[in-house]
Amino acid sequence: MCGIVGIVAKKRVNQTLYDALTVLQHRGQDAAGIATCEGERLYQRKDNGLVREVFRTKHMLKLDGTMGIGHIRYPTAGRASSTEAQPFYVNSPFGITLAHNGNLINSKQLMRDVFRDDRRHINTESDSEILLNVFAHELMKLGKLRIDENDVFKAVSGVHKRCQGGYAAIAMIVGYGVVAFRDPFGIRPVCFGYRDSEDGREYMVASESVALDALGFELVRDLEPGEAIFIDTDSEIHTRQCAENPVYAPCIFEYVYLARPDSIIDDVSVYKARLRMGERLADRILEAWPDHDIDVVIPIPDTSRTAALPLSYKLGVKYREGFIKNRYIGRTFIMPGQKERERSVRHKLNAIDLEFEGKNVLLVDDSIVRGTTSAQIIQMARDAGARRVYFASAAPPVRYQNVYGIDMPVVGELIAHNRTEEQVAATIGADRLFYQTVDDLIDAVRKGNPRLREFDTSCFTGDYVTGDVTSDYLEQIALARNDAAKELELAAGEPT
């Protein structure tokens, strides 16, 4: 889960890129980067940290150009280091920078192919650098000194044939324009829009529509699975389907947690989808426990608020804000390493005792992944005086690894894997636990766009939509990306 943005305009785009990245900051807190182009010259700044930490006035002044791309990094693979901050750059052909959201499941094979067959060197452990080199090679093998949109689309078609997994990418070709493309299953999101200014029409491509909304761009639509969009330096727009057999199967976890509620993804309002999740979860609670003794519904801020409101209304129970969030602590789900997540929970939330004391409390969260946060919050509720603490998840049990760009790498670290609901409740310390069903979650999202017949629900069901995820691959990423491995990387610091 990363954030990507690209802009082509008639005036400098550095500030607009910066502003868009701040809006997308929820998609990653590890690193940030911007690359811009003026004529035949490329300018770049990237480093570890939040957007406001990476870019100072002295950096912004050097980012000249009327087109550019930006990236927010959340490390699902590779190291949490500045060497893997994006965009990545290759000088041949033409000079190309690329920003990527997702994960390639055949990256090891691609790395060998890129070195042996394409004669290209990969300098990091990032699959994003591999994706860039695959795209660059597909463009170079056309053998042209000058290219047009048809050549760019041919290169994207070559990428789709070679790359497996979930990916949304934006690349800037020096002197030509910005191209964005989405994997043939549409797993990771990307949309585009425009705004008219005194200097002419400007185009933006971004992971979420909220980046467009916040900066006055009109959302046109999401890219279709396998589709590419090319915006040339004259702000002329070209689109084409570049995959042979595209299938619409977006990641349903975007609607549960990853995206901002004010975004629209694949014509579905994330906010409305979460409202429906709350309603369906209330139905499940009433069906299983019609004579419940819940006194108050309290959301775990911030993502679960939208679902908790209609849930409390349908249960006929008061809704209260029982936790105050420190907004200067990042999202614990996307922090690298279990120790870092554990330290952050107590620093992030503080209970209001009067909302808990002597009450039977239903806590609502968007999901339960490792269970660490849930267990600590339940204990906080008890410490604040709650008589009983019930827990409800707007998502089904997370039982399997996600391989398409979300940090759920090891089934042994997922609290619901090989456990019943009762066992999970006992493990996190809840008096009773309620999960959303997979069918109700799908229905809650699909109601916003009936055209979406399929979703990637692999973290709930273990069914991987690309159909090429092997048990060997799952074992490989479990060894490379478990929390113990991350702790070793964090302890080691910057690679030498």
Q: What does it look like?
A:
It contains 17 helices and 22 strands. The protein is α+β, with helices and mostly antiparallel strands and 496 residues long. It has 2 domains: 3-247, Glutamine Phosphoribosylpyrophosphate, subunit 1, domain 1 (4-Layer Sandwich); 271-448, Rossmann fold (3-Layer(aba) Sandwich). The mean pLDDT is 93.
Summarize the structure.
The chain has 496 residues and is α+β, with helices and mostly antiparallel strands.
Summarize the topology:
Blueprint: E1 3-8, H1 14-23, E2 31-38, E3 41-48, H2 51-54, H3 57-60, E4 67-73, E5 88-90, E6 96-104, H4 107-116, H5 127-140, H6 149-162, E7 165-173, E8 177-182, E9 191-197, E10 200-206, H7 209-214, E11 218-222, E12 227-232, E13 237-241, H8 253-258, E14 264-265, E15 268-269, H9 270-288, E16 296-299, H10 305-315, E17 318-319, E18 323-325, H11 338-348, E19 349-351, E20 360-365, H12 372-383, E21 388-393, H13 421-428, E22 432-435, H14 438-446, H15 458-461, H16 471-481, H17 483-492
